[in-house]
Protein backbone atom coordinates (compact mmCIF):
# COMPACT_ATOMS: atom_id res chain seq x y z
CA UNK A 1 0.00 0.00 0.00
CA UNK A 2 1.15 3.54 -0.75
CA UNK A 3 2.46 5.20 2.42
CA UNK A 4 2.82 8.92 3.05
CA UNK A 5 5.24 10.61 5.39
CA UNK A 6 4.19 13.63 7.51
CA UNK A 7 6.34 16.04 5.47
CA UNK A 8 5.03 14.94 2.05
CA UNK A 9 3.72 18.01 0.26
CA UNK A 10 0.34 17.44 -1.39
CA UNK A 11 -0.83 19.56 -4.33
CA UNK A 12 -4.13 18.99 -6.07
CA UNK A 13 -4.17 19.09 -9.89
CA UNK A 14 -5.76 21.86 -11.93
CA UNK A 15 -9.26 20.62 -12.68
CA UNK A 16 -12.46 22.16 -13.93
CA UNK A 17 -15.08 21.82 -11.26
CA UNK A 18 -18.70 22.54 -10.52
CA UNK A 19 -21.21 21.76 -7.79
CA UNK A 20 -24.53 19.96 -7.87
CA UNK A 21 -26.65 18.71 -4.94
CA UNK A 22 -23.77 19.35 -2.48
CA UNK A 23 -21.47 17.24 -4.62
CA UNK A 24 -18.31 18.58 -6.26
CA UNK A 25 -17.82 17.39 -9.83
CA UNK A 26 -14.32 17.48 -11.30
CA UNK A 27 -13.71 17.23 -14.99
CA UNK A 28 -10.57 16.51 -16.95
CA UNK A 29 -11.19 17.63 -20.51
CA UNK A 30 -8.02 15.99 -21.84
CA UNK A 31 -8.84 12.60 -20.35
CA UNK A 32 -12.61 12.94 -20.75
CA UNK A 33 -12.85 11.80 -17.12
CA UNK A 34 -15.32 12.93 -14.46
CA UNK A 35 -15.11 12.58 -10.68
CA UNK A 36 -17.78 13.20 -8.06
CA UNK A 37 -16.65 14.12 -4.53
CA UNK A 38 -18.98 14.02 -1.53
CA UNK A 39 -18.60 14.54 2.21
CA UNK A 40 -15.05 14.12 3.51
CA UNK A 41 -13.63 13.65 -0.01
CA UNK A 42 -15.07 17.04 -0.91
CA UNK A 43 -13.66 18.56 2.25
CA UNK A 44 -10.17 17.18 1.50
CA UNK A 45 -10.32 18.57 -2.04
CA UNK A 46 -11.27 22.00 -0.67
CA UNK A 47 -8.50 21.95 1.95
CA UNK A 48 -5.98 21.22 -0.81
CA UNK A 49 -6.83 24.42 -2.67
CA UNK A 50 -3.41 25.53 -1.44
CA UNK A 51 -0.73 22.80 -1.15
CA UNK A 52 -0.47 21.22 2.32
CA UNK A 53 1.81 18.72 4.02
CA UNK A 54 0.31 15.37 4.89
CA UNK A 55 0.50 16.19 8.62
CA UNK A 56 -1.20 19.58 8.17
CA UNK A 57 -4.04 17.90 6.26
CA UNK A 58 -4.44 15.28 9.01
CA UNK A 59 -4.56 18.07 11.64
CA UNK A 60 -7.31 19.88 9.73
CA UNK A 61 -9.42 16.73 9.34
CA UNK A 62 -8.96 15.67 12.96
CA UNK A 63 -10.40 19.02 14.04
CA UNK A 64 -13.30 18.84 11.58
CA UNK A 65 -14.33 15.22 12.10
CA UNK A 66 -13.24 14.66 15.73
CA UNK A 67 -11.40 11.44 15.03
CA UNK A 68 -8.03 10.21 16.24
CA UNK A 69 -5.00 11.25 14.17
CA UNK A 70 -4.08 7.56 13.69
CA UNK A 71 -7.48 6.57 12.27
CA UNK A 72 -7.53 9.70 10.13
CA UNK A 73 -4.05 9.10 8.68
CA UNK A 74 -4.90 5.49 7.85
CA UNK A 75 -8.12 6.41 5.98
CA UNK A 76 -6.48 9.35 4.32
CA UNK A 77 -3.62 7.31 2.86
CA UNK A 78 -6.00 5.15 0.91
CA UNK A 79 -7.91 8.09 -0.47
CA UNK A 80 -4.79 10.10 -1.37
CA UNK A 81 -3.29 7.08 -3.13
CA UNK A 82 -6.47 6.83 -5.20
CA UNK A 83 -6.34 10.54 -6.03
CA UNK A 84 -2.71 10.16 -7.04
CA UNK A 85 -3.55 7.20 -9.32
CA UNK A 86 -6.30 9.23 -11.01
CA UNK A 87 -3.93 12.15 -11.55
CA UNK A 88 -5.84 14.43 -9.17
CA UNK A 89 -2.90 14.86 -6.80
CA UNK A 90 0.86 15.28 -6.93
CA UNK A 91 3.15 14.47 -4.01
CA UNK A 92 6.60 15.96 -3.39
CA UNK B 1 -17.24 47.10 -48.57
CA UNK B 2 -20.85 46.14 -48.00
CA UNK B 3 -21.89 45.02 -44.55
CA UNK B 4 -24.10 42.02 -44.01
CA UNK B 5 -26.07 42.12 -40.78
CA UNK B 6 -27.23 38.98 -38.97
CA UNK B 7 -28.67 37.99 -35.65
CA UNK B 8 -27.70 34.73 -33.95
CA UNK B 9 -27.25 33.68 -30.32
CA UNK B 10 -28.90 36.98 -29.36
CA UNK B 11 -25.96 38.85 -30.95
CA UNK B 12 -25.92 41.47 -33.69
CA UNK B 13 -23.33 40.29 -36.18
CA UNK B 14 -21.72 42.22 -39.02
CA UNK B 15 -19.77 40.28 -41.59
CA UNK B 16 -18.02 41.59 -44.66
CA UNK B 17 -19.32 38.66 -46.71
CA UNK B 18 -22.66 36.86 -46.95
CA UNK B 19 -23.60 34.11 -44.47
CA UNK B 20 -26.96 32.76 -45.67
CA UNK B 21 -27.02 30.21 -42.81
CA UNK B 22 -27.71 33.01 -40.33
CA UNK B 23 -30.98 34.93 -39.92
CA UNK B 24 -30.78 38.50 -41.24
CA UNK B 25 -30.75 41.48 -38.95
CA UNK B 26 -33.74 43.59 -39.91
CA UNK B 27 -33.05 46.80 -38.05
CA UNK B 28 -29.57 48.26 -38.27
CA UNK B 29 -28.25 50.38 -35.42
CA UNK B 30 -24.65 50.55 -36.53
CA UNK B 31 -23.23 48.95 -33.40
CA UNK B 32 -22.82 45.22 -33.78
CA UNK B 33 -21.87 42.88 -30.92
CA UNK B 34 -19.67 40.86 -33.25
CA UNK B 35 -17.73 41.78 -36.38
CA UNK B 36 -16.41 39.22 -38.82
CA UNK B 37 -13.57 40.39 -41.06
CA UNK B 38 -11.99 38.71 -44.02
CA UNK B 39 -8.29 39.58 -44.32
CA UNK B 40 -6.29 39.30 -47.56
CA UNK B 41 -5.20 35.73 -48.34
CA UNK B 42 -1.62 34.92 -47.49
CA UNK B 43 0.53 31.81 -47.35
CA UNK B 44 2.16 32.65 -44.01
CA UNK B 45 -1.08 33.09 -42.12
CA UNK B 46 -0.17 30.36 -39.67
CA UNK B 47 1.84 32.69 -37.41
CA UNK B 48 3.30 30.42 -34.75
CA UNK B 49 0.59 27.77 -34.94
CA UNK B 50 1.05 24.41 -36.54
CA UNK B 51 -1.45 23.49 -39.21
CA UNK B 52 -4.52 21.79 -37.79
CA UNK B 53 -3.85 23.17 -34.33
CA UNK B 54 -5.67 25.60 -32.09
CA UNK B 55 -4.74 27.67 -29.10
CA UNK B 56 -6.97 28.90 -26.29
CA UNK B 57 -5.87 31.87 -24.22
CA UNK B 58 -7.92 34.17 -22.07
CA UNK B 59 -9.84 36.33 -24.57
CA UNK B 60 -7.98 35.03 -27.64
CA UNK B 61 -8.61 31.91 -29.66
CA UNK B 62 -6.59 30.90 -32.72
CA UNK B 63 -7.16 28.04 -35.11
CA UNK B 64 -5.56 26.90 -38.33
CA UNK B 65 -7.66 24.67 -40.57
CA UNK B 66 -5.39 23.04 -43.17
CA UNK B 67 -6.03 24.31 -46.72
CA UNK B 68 -8.85 26.52 -45.43
CA UNK B 69 -7.93 29.46 -43.23
CA UNK B 70 -6.48 30.92 -40.12
CA UNK B 71 -9.14 32.06 -37.64
CA UNK B 72 -8.59 34.47 -34.79
CA UNK B 73 -11.39 35.17 -32.30
CA UNK B 74 -10.95 38.05 -29.86
CA UNK B 75 -12.79 38.97 -26.66
CA UNK B 76 -16.06 37.44 -27.80
CA UNK B 77 -16.60 40.21 -30.33
CA UNK B 78 -14.17 40.05 -33.25
CA UNK B 79 -13.44 37.25 -35.69
CA UNK B 80 -10.64 37.65 -38.24
CA UNK B 81 -10.28 35.17 -41.06
CA UNK B 82 -7.16 34.90 -43.19
CA UNK B 83 -8.06 32.53 -46.03
CA UNK B 84 -5.44 30.25 -47.48
CA UNK B 85 -5.00 30.54 -51.24
CA UNK B 86 -7.68 28.87 -53.35
CA UNK B 87 -10.22 28.13 -50.61
CA UNK B 88 -13.96 28.48 -51.33
CA UNK B 89 -16.21 30.81 -49.35
CA UNK B 90 -18.42 27.82 -48.39
CA UNK B 91 -15.45 26.12 -46.70
CA UNK B 92 -14.53 29.34 -44.92
CA UNK B 93 -18.08 29.65 -43.59
CA UNK B 94 -18.24 26.03 -42.46
CA UNK B 95 -15.40 26.55 -39.94
CA UNK B 96 -16.45 30.13 -39.19
CA UNK B 97 -19.97 29.12 -38.13
CA UNK B 98 -18.68 25.96 -36.45
CA UNK B 99 -15.39 26.17 -34.58
CA UNK B 100 -14.83 29.94 -34.64
CA UNK B 101 -18.38 30.80 -33.50
CA UNK B 102 -18.12 28.02 -30.91
CA UNK B 103 -15.00 29.66 -29.48
CA UNK B 104 -16.75 33.04 -29.52
CA UNK B 105 -19.65 31.60 -27.50
CA UNK B 106 -17.18 30.28 -24.89
CA UNK B 107 -15.51 33.69 -24.71
CA UNK B 108 -18.88 35.35 -24.06
CA UNK B 109 -19.79 32.90 -21.29
CA UNK B 110 -22.59 31.32 -23.32
CA UNK B 111 -22.97 27.57 -22.91
CA UNK B 112 -22.77 25.93 -26.37
CA UNK B 113 -24.33 22.52 -26.89
CA UNK B 114 -23.99 20.21 -29.86
CA UNK B 115 -27.67 19.90 -30.57
CA UNK B 116 -30.86 21.22 -32.10
CA UNK B 117 -33.54 23.20 -30.27
CA UNK B 118 -37.24 23.78 -30.83
CA UNK B 119 -39.78 26.01 -29.14
CA UNK B 120 -42.71 24.25 -27.43
CA UNK B 121 -45.51 25.51 -25.17
CA UNK B 122 -43.47 24.16 -22.21
CA UNK B 123 -40.33 26.06 -23.19
CA UNK B 124 -37.29 25.20 -25.26
CA UNK B 125 -36.49 21.53 -25.81
CA UNK B 126 -32.95 20.65 -26.87
CA UNK B 127 -31.89 17.37 -28.51
CA UNK B 128 -28.22 16.46 -28.17
CA UNK B 129 -26.16 13.40 -29.00
CA UNK B 130 -23.11 12.26 -30.88
CA UNK B 131 -22.58 12.83 -34.60
CA UNK B 132 -25.37 11.01 -36.44
CA UNK B 133 -27.50 10.51 -33.31
CA UNK B 134 -30.57 11.95 -35.07
CA UNK B 135 -30.75 15.41 -33.47
CA UNK B 136 -31.59 17.30 -36.67
CA UNK B 137 -33.93 14.57 -37.91
CA UNK B 138 -35.99 14.74 -34.73
CA UNK B 139 -36.03 18.55 -34.59
CA UNK B 140 -37.09 18.59 -38.27
CA UNK B 141 -39.95 16.19 -37.52
CA UNK B 142 -41.22 18.52 -34.77
CA UNK B 143 -40.84 21.43 -37.18
CA UNK B 144 -42.98 19.61 -39.78
CA UNK B 145 -45.63 19.26 -37.09
CA UNK B 146 -45.70 23.04 -36.60
CA UNK B 147 -43.18 23.69 -33.85
CA UNK B 148 -40.79 26.60 -34.40
CA UNK B 149 -37.07 26.02 -34.83
CA UNK B 150 -34.63 27.78 -32.47
CA UNK B 151 -31.43 26.34 -33.87
CA UNK B 152 -30.13 23.30 -35.68
CA UNK B 153 -26.84 21.54 -34.89
CA UNK B 154 -25.40 24.08 -32.42
CA UNK B 155 -27.40 25.89 -29.80
CA UNK B 156 -26.43 28.02 -26.82
CA UNK B 157 -27.80 28.58 -23.33
CA UNK B 158 -27.53 31.90 -21.55
CA UNK B 159 -27.82 32.30 -17.78
CA UNK B 160 -29.48 35.56 -16.68
CA UNK B 161 -30.97 36.65 -13.34
CA UNK B 162 -34.35 35.63 -14.86
CA UNK B 163 -33.24 32.08 -15.51
CA UNK B 164 -31.81 29.96 -18.31
CA UNK B 165 -32.57 30.84 -21.92
CA UNK B 166 -32.08 28.96 -25.15
CA UNK B 167 -30.82 31.35 -27.81
CA UNK B 168 -31.98 31.20 -31.43
CA UNK B 169 -29.17 30.68 -33.92
CA UNK B 170 -29.23 28.71 -37.17
CA UNK B 171 -32.27 29.15 -39.40
CA UNK B 172 -31.59 26.04 -41.44
CA UNK B 173 -31.61 22.28 -41.12
CA UNK B 174 -28.74 20.02 -42.09
CA UNK B 175 -30.49 16.78 -42.97
CA UNK B 176 -29.59 13.28 -44.09
CA UNK B 177 -31.30 11.87 -47.20
CA UNK B 178 -34.20 10.19 -45.31
CA UNK B 179 -35.17 13.28 -43.34
CA UNK B 180 -34.73 15.43 -46.45
CA UNK B 181 -37.23 13.25 -48.32
CA UNK B 182 -39.76 13.54 -45.46
CA UNK B 183 -39.25 17.29 -45.69
CA UNK B 184 -40.54 17.13 -49.27
CA UNK B 185 -37.11 17.74 -50.85
CA UNK B 186 -37.54 21.55 -51.08
CA UNK B 187 -36.16 23.31 -54.18
CA UNK B 188 -34.13 25.89 -52.27
CA UNK B 189 -32.02 23.24 -50.52
CA UNK B 190 -28.42 22.60 -51.47
CA UNK B 191 -26.10 19.68 -50.83
CA UNK B 192 -23.12 20.48 -48.64
CA UNK B 193 -20.35 17.94 -47.91
CA UNK B 194 -22.60 15.18 -46.52
CA UNK B 195 -25.98 16.77 -45.74
CA UNK B 196 -28.87 18.56 -47.42
CA UNK B 197 -29.04 22.13 -46.17
CA UNK B 198 -32.64 23.37 -46.01
CA UNK B 199 -33.24 27.05 -45.19
CA UNK B 200 -35.97 27.76 -42.64
CA UNK B 201 -37.69 31.02 -43.54
CA UNK B 202 -41.03 30.69 -41.80
CA UNK B 203 -41.60 29.19 -38.42
CA UNK B 204 -38.22 30.21 -37.06
CA UNK B 205 -38.36 31.43 -33.47
CA UNK B 206 -36.30 34.65 -33.32
CA UNK B 207 -36.50 35.20 -29.54
CA UNK B 208 -34.77 33.45 -26.63
CA UNK B 209 -37.00 30.82 -24.98
CA UNK B 210 -36.73 29.54 -21.37
CA UNK B 211 -34.89 26.21 -21.35
CA UNK B 212 -37.10 23.32 -20.21
CA UNK B 213 -35.35 20.07 -20.99
CA UNK B 214 -32.28 18.59 -22.65
CA UNK B 215 -32.69 15.19 -24.31
CA UNK B 216 -29.71 12.96 -24.96
CA UNK B 217 -30.57 10.71 -27.89
CA UNK B 218 -29.58 7.05 -27.69
CA UNK B 219 -30.39 3.88 -29.62
CA UNK B 220 -31.97 0.71 -28.38
CA UNK B 221 -33.57 -2.37 -29.98
CA UNK B 222 -36.95 -2.16 -28.31
CA UNK B 223 -39.87 -0.75 -30.34
CA UNK B 224 -41.03 1.29 -27.35
CA UNK B 225 -39.12 4.51 -26.76
CA UNK B 226 -37.94 5.30 -23.23
CA UNK B 227 -37.62 8.61 -21.41
CA UNK B 228 -35.31 8.35 -18.43
CA UNK B 229 -34.63 11.41 -16.27
CA UNK B 230 -31.02 11.54 -15.13
CA UNK B 231 -30.07 12.20 -11.53
CA UNK B 232 -27.07 13.56 -9.59
CA UNK B 233 -23.59 13.33 -11.03
CA UNK B 234 -24.80 11.85 -14.36
CA UNK B 235 -26.64 15.05 -15.24
CA UNK B 236 -23.45 17.15 -15.15
CA UNK B 237 -21.33 14.54 -16.87
CA UNK B 238 -23.79 13.97 -19.73
CA UNK B 239 -24.32 17.72 -20.12
CA UNK B 240 -20.57 18.40 -20.37
CA UNK B 241 -20.12 15.48 -22.77
CA UNK B 242 -22.52 17.23 -25.13
CA UNK B 243 -20.80 20.59 -25.11
CA UNK B 244 -19.97 21.86 -28.58
CA UNK B 245 -16.18 21.58 -29.09
CA UNK B 246 -15.55 20.74 -25.40
CA UNK B 247 -11.76 20.95 -25.81
CA UNK B 248 -12.13 24.71 -26.42
CA UNK B 249 -13.31 25.20 -22.82
CA UNK B 250 -9.96 24.76 -21.10
CA UNK B 251 -7.97 27.96 -20.89
CA UNK B 252 -10.89 30.30 -21.57
CA UNK B 253 -11.12 33.27 -19.22
CA UNK B 254 -14.73 32.18 -18.73
CA UNK B 255 -14.01 28.51 -17.91
CA UNK B 256 -15.05 28.71 -14.25
CA UNK B 257 -18.22 30.67 -15.12
CA UNK B 258 -19.10 28.02 -17.70
CA UNK B 259 -18.49 25.20 -15.23
CA UNK B 260 -20.78 26.94 -12.72
CA UNK B 261 -23.35 27.18 -15.51
CA UNK B 262 -23.07 23.45 -16.11
CA UNK B 263 -24.00 22.85 -12.47
CA UNK B 264 -26.86 25.33 -12.71
CA UNK B 265 -28.26 23.91 -15.95
CA UNK B 266 -28.02 20.34 -14.60
CA UNK B 267 -29.86 21.42 -11.45
CA UNK B 268 -32.61 23.57 -12.98
CA UNK B 269 -33.33 21.67 -16.18
CA UNK B 270 -34.73 18.24 -16.86
CA UNK B 271 -31.94 16.20 -18.41
CA UNK B 272 -33.19 12.96 -19.87
CA UNK B 273 -31.87 10.09 -21.86
CA UNK B 274 -34.26 9.26 -24.72
CA UNK B 275 -33.71 5.80 -26.19
CA UNK B 276 -35.53 4.57 -29.23
CA UNK B 277 -35.20 2.13 -32.09
CA UNK B 278 -33.96 4.10 -35.05
CA UNK B 279 -35.99 3.58 -38.19
CA UNK B 280 -37.69 6.05 -40.57
CA UNK B 281 -41.15 4.65 -39.74
CA UNK B 282 -40.56 5.21 -35.99
CA UNK B 283 -39.89 8.93 -36.10
CA UNK B 284 -43.51 10.13 -36.07
CA UNK B 285 -44.26 7.89 -33.12
CA UNK B 286 -41.28 9.34 -31.27
CA UNK B 287 -42.67 12.85 -31.67
CA UNK B 288 -46.00 11.78 -30.13
CA UNK B 289 -44.19 9.87 -27.39
CA UNK B 290 -42.18 12.95 -26.38
CA UNK B 291 -45.26 15.19 -26.43
CA UNK B 292 -46.94 12.80 -23.98
CA UNK B 293 -43.80 12.58 -21.82
CA UNK B 294 -43.67 16.39 -21.64
CA UNK B 295 -47.39 16.72 -20.86
CA UNK B 296 -47.02 14.14 -18.09
CA UNK B 297 -44.05 15.90 -16.52
CA UNK B 298 -44.67 19.56 -17.24
CA UNK B 299 -48.49 19.74 -17.33
CA UNK B 300 -51.08 18.86 -19.96
CA UNK B 301 -52.19 22.47 -20.50
CA UNK B 302 -49.12 24.63 -20.67
CA UNK B 303 -49.67 28.40 -20.62
CA UNK B 304 -50.12 29.85 -24.12
CA UNK B 305 -47.18 31.79 -25.45
CA UNK B 306 -47.83 35.47 -26.12
CA UNK B 307 -45.49 35.90 -29.04
Shape of chain B: globular
Q: DSSP helix count of chain B?
A: 6
> In DSSP terms, counting alpha (H) and pi (I) runs of 4 or more, how many helices of chain A?
3
Oligomer: heterodimer
Task: Determine the CATH topology of the largest domain in chain B.
Answer: Rossmann fold
- CATH 2nd-level architecture of chain A: Orthogonal Bundle
> Which structural class do you get from the secondary structure elements of chain A?
alpha+beta
Report the end-to-end length of chain B measured between terminal Cα atoms.
Answer: 36 Å
Gyration radius of chain B, in Å? 19 Å
Structural class, from helix and strand content of chain B? alpha+beta
What is the CATH class of chain A? Mainly Alpha
SSE succession of chain B: EEEEEEEHEEEHEEEEHEEEEHHEH
Let me know the average pLDDT of chain A: 92
Number of strands of chain B: 19
What proportion strand of chain B? Answer: 25-35%
Give the helix/strand layout.
The complex is a heterodimer of chains A (92) and B (307).
Chain A: E1 9-12, E2 16-20, E3 23-28, E4 33-37, H1 39-47, E5 52-53, H2 54-65, H3 69-85, E6 89-91
Antiparallel strand pairs in A: 1-5, 1-6, 2-3, 3-4
Chain B: E1 4-8, E2 11-15, E3 34-38, E4 54-57, E5 60-65, E6 69-74, E7 78-83, H1 89-107, E8 111-113, E9 115-120, E10 123-128, H2 135-144, E11 148-151, E12 155-160, E13 163-167, E14 172-175, H3 177-182, E15 190-192, E16 195-199, E17 209-219, E18 226-229, H4 232-241, H5 255-268, E19 270-276, H6 283-298
Parallel strand pairs in B: 2-3, 3-7, 10-17, 17-19
Antiparallel strand pairs in B: 1-2, 4-5, 5-6, 6-7, 8-12, 9-10, 9-11, 12-13, 13-17, 14-16, 15-16, 18-19
Helix pairs in contact in B: 2-6, 4-5
Amino acid sequence: MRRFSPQDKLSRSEMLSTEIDQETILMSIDAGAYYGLKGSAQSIWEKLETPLTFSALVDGLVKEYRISPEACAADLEGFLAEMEREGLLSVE
Amino acid sequence: MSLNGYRAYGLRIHADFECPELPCLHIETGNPDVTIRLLPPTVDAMESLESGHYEVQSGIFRLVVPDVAFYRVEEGCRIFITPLPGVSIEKLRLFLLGSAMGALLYQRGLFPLHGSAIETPWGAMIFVGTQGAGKSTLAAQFYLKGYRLLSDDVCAVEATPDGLWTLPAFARFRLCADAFARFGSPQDARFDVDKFVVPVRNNYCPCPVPLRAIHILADHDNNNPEFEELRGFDRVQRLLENLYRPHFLKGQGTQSILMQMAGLIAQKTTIASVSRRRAPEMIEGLVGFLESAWAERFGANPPKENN
